[in-house]
From TrEMBL:
<keyword id="KW-0256">Endoplasmic reticulum</keyword>
<comment type="similarity">
    <text>Belongs to the nicastrin family.</text>
</comment>
<protein>
    <recommendedName>
        <fullName>BOS complex subunit NCLN</fullName>
    </recommendedName>
</protein>
<dbReference type="GO" id="GO:0009966">
    <property type="term" value="P:regulation of signal transduction"/>
</dbReference>
<keyword id="KW-1133">Transmembrane helix</keyword>
<dbReference type="InterPro" id="IPR007484">
    <property type="entry name" value="Peptidase_M28"/>
</dbReference>
<feature type="transmembrane region" description="Helical">
    <location>
        <begin position="492"/>
        <end position="519"/>
    </location>
</feature>
<keyword id="KW-0812">Transmembrane</keyword>
<dbReference type="Pfam" id="PF04389">
    <property type="entry name" value="Peptidase_M28"/>
</dbReference>
<keyword id="KW-0472">Membrane</keyword>
<keyword id="KW-0325">Glycoprotein</keyword>
<dbReference type="GO" id="GO:0005789">
    <property type="term" value="C:endoplasmic reticulum membrane"/>
</dbReference>
<feature type="domain" description="Peptidase M28">
    <location>
        <begin position="167"/>
        <end position="321"/>
    </location>
</feature>
<dbReference type="InterPro" id="IPR016574">
    <property type="entry name" value="Nicalin"/>
</dbReference>
<keyword id="KW-0732">Signal</keyword>
Length: 530
């Protein structure tokens, strides 16, 4: 389970060591026991029962194919993940993928735990003494803080043509994922879809900027941020570096707007989240209108709307990434198919990519929970690309119709490319605690950005050792061994039986000796005296 500190507030479990006997939540006594639960039977009430009874640990068994789980179970668990993280506990909490051996352990433990309720006290004692049990033991060490972890972000640019003080459009997407367990956080929709869209936009506009005829008078700056799920730490440091610690930066000059891409791989609606509604005549307002026009004229089934929410500086966590830019007075907004930042699928281990190829392309039953529909991701990418192009080339003022498609034929959005990037991103967990500066995720992102953009750079952020905004911990993945054992009462009962046996044997031997003496006296012939 997650273990981290953010703004001085601890989240998740505070312990990692496990060496206790297994029980299921159906058992009467859970104190100092390892409570095993299946996801299908999991509830927050059962989880709280284990914590209240001071369980030695909790192990939640997840199905191999989480996308095949019933929708109600998936939705319930997604909504419980934030509550589990918000409940600080010293009880180690682990998640394990089911297999035959683990299910066998669970079944035997469940039978042992649940059968005791209908038995008499003597029968319970006998059952407890004779039943097989399992001792669950982890092989790792206690978790400790990682003090020098670096969160990596990347930037690249396409320079405009036609002057020095050109306006700059910034496109942003965070690449890290989040869920109750870091090693199970794959972030397919949030935010694999956003990164996939950013890379496709970089590819399309790099082609346009290659030709003199379509080389526009806008600088395009692409930023793939790290630490997005931890209050956008990578973006915060990038802004500080560009606005406070340098004299020359595109962010200091003429920023038209910042467009953040977040969770765009599904749905039939697009929401432009803003902290301040754009004023008429500004580039932000132009993008808003172009998104409306492209959506309504080219994709009537797509519902586009603007969602206004002020920045609440009193909250520990910002709602959307554009708020980081808004705090620094840069015009910014976030585009998402989600109507609210509070929806559970933004931060869930259920946001996975493990679906069949037919489901990916809109054939067959879609999986439960968050997932990426490549056709809808491709459509959303096309909408964003067309709207950006209409702003950059000022097509509306030039009289271009709303149904004009710039990205078609040789310049069309490539579904296969989008799908391949999402597949690659979700092939490994991308929790911020797992992606270091030498990670293959970072190096591959750097390679793809370098194919399309110029001046690709890495940016790093480490927590301040004196007053850290975030603290990560190690031991996020451990090997757990299950040993088949007899309960302690079995040893006690065995000792009593052995003692009783020895006592009986001792008495039998003593009684036999006494009986022998009596018989001998009776049968011994009497001697006559002379």
């Amino acid at each position: 389970m997650q273990q981290y500190d953010l703004q001085g507030q601890p989240y998740g479990t505070r312990n990692a060591i496990l060496n206790t006997e297994a029980r299921t939540v159906e058992a009467e006594v859970l104190s100092r026991r390892c409570v095993i639960m299946r996801l299908a039977d999991f509830s927050y009430a059962k989880y709280q029962k284990a914590l209240r009874q001071s369980a030695g640990a909790v192990v939640i068994i997840l199905p191999k194919n989480m996308s095949a789980m019933p929708q109600d179970i998936v939705q319930q668990f997604m909504e419980l993940e934030p509550e589990m993280l918000a409940t600080e506990t010293i009880v180690p909490v682990y998640f394990a993928m089911e297999d035959d051996e683990l299910l066998s352990i669970y079944t035997q433990t469940l039978t042992s735990s649940s059968s005791q309720g209908s038995l008499s006290a003597a029968e319970v004692l006998l059952h407890t003494a004779t039943a097989n049990g399992f001792q669950m033991i982890t092989s790792g060490a206690q978790s400790k803080a990682v003090n020098d972890w670096a969160i990596t972000s990347l930037e690249g640019r396409l320079a405009g043509v036609g002057g020095e003080d050109l306006p700059t459009i910034v496109v942003v997407a965070h690449y890290d994922s989040f869920g109750v367990a870091p090693w199970l956080s794959y972030g397919a929709d949030s935010n694999g879809s956003g990164v996939s869209m950013l890379l496709e936009l970089a590819r399309l506009f790099s082609k346009l900027y290659t030709y003199k005829r379509t080389h526009a008078g806008y600088n395009l700056l692409f930023f793939v941020s790290g630490g997005g799920k931890f209050n956008y730490q990578g973006t915060k440091r990038w802004l500080e570096d560009n606005l406070d610690h340098t004299d020359s930066s595109l962010l200091q000059d003429n920023v038209a707007f910042v467009l953040c891409l977040d969770t765009l791989g599904n749905g039939d609606s697009l929401h432009l989240h803003v902290s301040k509604p754009p004023k008429e005549g500004t580039p932000q307002y132009s993008l808003l209108k172009e998104l409306e026009m492209v959506s309504s004229s080219q994709y009537p089934e797509l519902k586009f709307s603007m969602t206004h929410k002020k920045i609440n500086l009193a909250d520990d966590m910002l709602a959307w990434e554009h708020e980081r830019f808004g705090i620094r007075r840069l015009p910014a907004f976030t585009l998402s198919h989600l109507p609210s930042h509070r929806l559970a699928q933004r931060s869930s281990i259920m946001d996975v990519r493990s679906v069949s190829p037919s489901s990916r392309y809109g054939v067959g039953e879609p999986p439960a929970g968050p997932h990426v529909d490549v056709k809808k991701l491709s459509r959303n990418t096309k909408v964003v690309a067309e709207a950006l192009a209409r702003v950059i080339y000022n097509l509306t003022e030039k009289g271009a119709p709303g149904d004009l498609q710039i990205f078609s034929e040789q310049m069309q959005v490539q579904e296969e490319q989008l799908s391949a990037v999402v597949d690659w991103l979700t092939a490994q967990p991308r929790a911020a605690q797992l992606v270091d500066k030498d990670s293959s995720v970072v190096s591959t992102l750097e390679y793809h950005l370098g194919r399309y953009l110029k001046d690709v750079k890495k940016h790093y952020v480490k927590a301040d050792k004196r007053d850290p905004e975030f603290v990560f911990y190690d031991q996020l993945k451990q090997t757990m061994n299950a040993y088949r054992v007899k309960p302690a009462i079995f040893d006690l009962l065995l000792a009593v039986c052995i003692a009783a046996y020895l006592g009986v044997m001792y008495l039998a031997i003593q009684n036999f000796g006494l009986l022998y003496s009596v018989v001998r006296r009776i049968t011994q012939p009497k001697t006559k005296a002379h």
